[in-house]
Amino acid sequence: xxxxxxxxxxxxxxxxxxxxxxxxxxxxxxxxxxxxxxxxxxxxxxxxxxxxxxxxxxxxxxxxxxxxxxxxxxxxxxxxxxxxxxxxxxxxxxxxxxxxxxxxxxxxxxxxxxxxxxxxxxxxxxxxxxxxxxxxxxxxxxxxxxxxxxxxxxxxxxxxxxxxxxxxxxxxxxxxxxxxxxxxxxxxxxxxxxxxxxxxxxxxxxxxxxxxxxxxxxxxxxxxxxxxxxxxxxxxxxxxxxxxxxxxxxxxxxxxxxxxxxxxxxxxxxxxxxxxxxxxxxxxxxxxxxxxxxxxxxxxxxxxxxxxxxxxxxxxxxxxxxxxxxxxxxxxxxxxxxxxxxxxxxxxxxxxxxxxxxxxxxxxxxxxxxxxxxxxxxxxxxxxxxxxxxxxxxxxxxxxxxxxxxxxxxxxxxxx
Length: 416
Description:
Pfam families: S6PP (PF05116), S6PP_C (PF08472). The protein has 416 residues and is an alpha/beta fold.
C-alpha cells in the first residue's frame, strides 16, 4: 500500500462471518476489542485485509450492520475480487489473471443440468464466481461430476464447498489462498513484503489461506467441522497454525499473542489508562472509550473528571462542530456534565476507524480518523481532524478539533 513507506510490520488477513464478526454476540464485544487494538497499535504500520466469500453487495451490507473498521485491502467473492482502500479500487492485474481458461456462460450452462444445485441470489453471481446451495450429502458427488464435465469443456475451474451448504465455481487460479499469494508476490516485487502474515478463518473456503508458505494461521474456536477436518488431514503437526480457544475476533487477538506478532492487549481490556507508553493513536482510542464509559455510567461522575478533560485542552484551542459552529474547546467540555449516564443500560458503543497520525513537528501530530457511535440500530459518524501536542508533560494536549458529518451518516445532536 502506498501509505506505507516500508514493509508492513504485520499483514492480518481475516475471514468475516463467524471469524472477525461474531453473529452470536449482540454486543459485538470481540469485534470492538479487535477494533480498539488495531487502531491503537497496528493501523499506522500494518495492513488489515478482509477475505470474505461475500460479494461486494453483501460485504457493504455487513459493514452497515456491524461496527467494523475499514480494511486496507478487501478480498471478496471467495478470492475472485481484490480491491484497495476506502474507494475499493479493483486490481486489474488480478482480473486479467482470472480470465485465463474461464467462461462463465459455459459454467452456467453445465451447472443448470444439476438439479441438486440451487442458484444463490443474483448479487452473489460475479464475473469470476458462480454460486449455489447444495445439500451436504450431495456435495461430494456433485462436485466430482461437475468438475469432470467442465474439464471436458476445456475449462480449468475450482469448486469450493463451505459452510455445509455453499458451493462456488471459480477459475482454477482463484480462491482466498491464491489471492493472498498474489498479494504477497506483489508486495515482494515492490520491495515491501510483510514482516509477518497472519491468516484467520473458520470454514472450508479459508483452508487455502493456511497453505501459503510462511504464513501463520488461526482457526477460531468456533471453526466448522470441514476446516477442522482439513487441519487434521493436512496440518495437525504444523506449529504455525493455531486452533484458538477463543471465539471469532477474540481468537484472532489470542493468535497475535501466541505467535508473538505484537501487542495483543486491547485498550478495551485495560481498566487503568497508563501514560508511559502512550502514542497519539492510542490516545485517540482511549479518549473515545473514556467518553463511552462516561455516557454508559461505567465510571464515577465527579467534578474531577470534567476538570481532567479540560486540563487536556489548550486554553485557546478551537472545536468546529459538524454543524459548522465554532467553540472554545475548554468551554464546550462543560456539556459532558449534562450527558453523564444518558446511555446507561443501552447498547451504546463508540469506536474509531482508520486512525492515522502525521508528525507535524517534534511533539505535535495531525490526527485524522472517523468516529462512530452506535445505539441500538441508530448509527452516527463523523470525519475528525485534530491536532495533538505532547511537549512539556506525559499528557497529550488537544490543540484543535474539527468534525464533519460522514456521508449517509445519521445526523443529530453530536457531542465529541
